[in-house]
Design goal:
Layout (H helix, E strand, L loop, with lengths): L7 E11 L3 E8 L2 E8 H7 L6 E5 L10
Length: 67
């Protein structure tokens, strides 16, 4: 699926924590831990499981860091 977003990070799902409506999907992107919060329905529709290779696509207008 071609897309215009340039911030694409490949990784492998290491853990899925399901809630009532939202699931946190943890991805190991070559030693960097990413967490995506998506609907439980999307997890099922995409067939996501631990060990699945995925591409995280980041589209954010702002990234804010604080110490």
């Amino acid at each position: 699926m071609p897309i215009s977003a340039r911030n694409q990070i490949k990784g492998t799902i290491t853990k899925i924590t399901r809630g009532e409506a939202i699931a946190n999907v943890e991805v190991d992107a070559h030693g960097v831990r990413l967490v995506a919060s998506i609907t439980v329905e999307a997890v099922e529709e995409l067939g996501l499981r631990e060990g699945t290779e995925v591409t995280a696509i980041v589209k954010a207008s702002d990234v804010i860091l604080a110490t």
